[in-house]
């Protein structure tokens, strides 16, 4: 087993939002600090700047941006065993601004030279722009996966997982999921024992259960169909009761077929899927904010018995109700 060399892409001389430093610090923390008692030699880390120019106008809250300088340029990506793109500028994600062509070319060259390519959070947009995700399963932060899928239709985007290991190309969801992926790389390179010991030193779980589906907001989708608003709000207030398409349709004086069609057009979901999402959202809220027994949570959310609640949590969120509750400490006692 060998640690190898890691090259991290840094947006040098480009205004970087301070909140993006988290993703950038993750590979520096995992791979940059030697642990000779665990593996000697440890990883060889180098930071490779894009060499961009500072924008003429500043954006974002005052004092929230900074510029960075590195010892290596993008040519330092070629020859590295692993290349990591922690993120891309917000404008490239939100506004479709082009990525630096030099970066895209360097990523392609590094991959062609045999590098393992890794993205954290929005860094997936850079790998996708380079064509490295075409035909592959990949992920990013769930708030950006829809944009990633729309902009790069050849990518099989999965918004339910913390990270995707597709062999020589790996992608992760946002923020702490990037740490999950970096520890996974250590596990691949140096073995589970060393990865577990490193996780203990960082005071983080070596492996988290479930995927990012457990963090996705399942609140009522926006809809322009005002006629459905009252019945949807009523349904959310009565999730602990038996609800049917026929009964909801009667409340808005529609036929079941018309109600089905209108709700699907408004939310992109069937009535049964919409109800399931709302019941899961209610159950999640109760698990986060109360110490009610699992069976009572199932009853109040309309998901039935504790076993039925557990079934839906595992199927939809990839985590049990008990694990979910432990991941979200109770805010109040109810």
Automatic annotation (TrEMBL):
InterPro entries, alphabetized: Class_I_gatase-like, DJ-1/PfpI, Homeodomain-like_sf, HTH_AraC, HTH_AraC-typ_CS, INH-QAR
Domain of life: Bacteria
Keyword field: DNA-binding, Transcription, Transcription regulation
Species of provenance: Planobispora longispora
Example of a GO MF term: sequence-specific DNA binding
HTH araC/xylS-type domain location: 229-327
Protein name (Swiss-Prot/TrEMBL): AraC family transcriptional regulator
């Amino acid at each position: 087993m060998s640690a190898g060399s890691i090259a991290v892409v840094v947006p040098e001389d480009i205004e970087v939002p301070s909140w993006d430093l988290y993703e950038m610090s993750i590979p520096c923390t995992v791979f940059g600090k030697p642990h000779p008692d665990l593996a000697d030699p440890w990883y060889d880390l180098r930071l490779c700047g894009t060499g961009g120019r500072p924008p003429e106008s500043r954006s974002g809250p005052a004092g929230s941006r900074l510029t960075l300088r590195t010892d290596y340029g993008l040519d330092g990506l070629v020859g590295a065993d692993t290349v990591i793109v922690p993120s891309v500028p917000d404008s490239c994600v939100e506004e479709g601004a082009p990525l630096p062509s030099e970066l895209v070319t360097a990523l392609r060259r590094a991959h062609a030279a045999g590098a393992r390519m890794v993205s954290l959070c929005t860094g997936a947009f850079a790998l996708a722009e380079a064509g490295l995700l075409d035909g592959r399963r990949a992920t990013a932060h769930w708030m950006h996966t829809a944009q990633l899928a729309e902009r790069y239709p050849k990518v099989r985007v999965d918004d339910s997982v913390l990270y995707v290991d597709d062999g020589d190309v790996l992608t992760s969801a946002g923020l702490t999921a990037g740490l999950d992926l970096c520890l996974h790389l250590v596990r691949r390179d140096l073995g589970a024992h060393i990865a577990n010991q490193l996780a203990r030193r960082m005071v983080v779980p070596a492996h988290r259960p479930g995927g990012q589906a457990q963090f996705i907001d399942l609140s009522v989708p926006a809809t322009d169909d005002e006629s459905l608003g009252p019945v949807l709000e009523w349904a959310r207030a009565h999730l602990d009761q038996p609800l049917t398409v026929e009964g909801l349709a009667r409340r808005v004086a529609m036929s079941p077929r018309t109600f089905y069609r209108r709700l699907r057009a408004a939310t992109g979901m069937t009535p049964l899927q919409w109800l399931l999402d709302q019941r899961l959202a209610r159950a999640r809220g109760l698990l986060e904010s109360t110490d009610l027994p699992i069976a009572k949570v199932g009853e109040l959310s309309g998901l039935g018995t504790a076993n039925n609640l557990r079934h839906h949590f595992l199927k939809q969120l990839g985590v049990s109700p008990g694990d979910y509750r432990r991941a979200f400490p109770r805010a109040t006692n109810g």
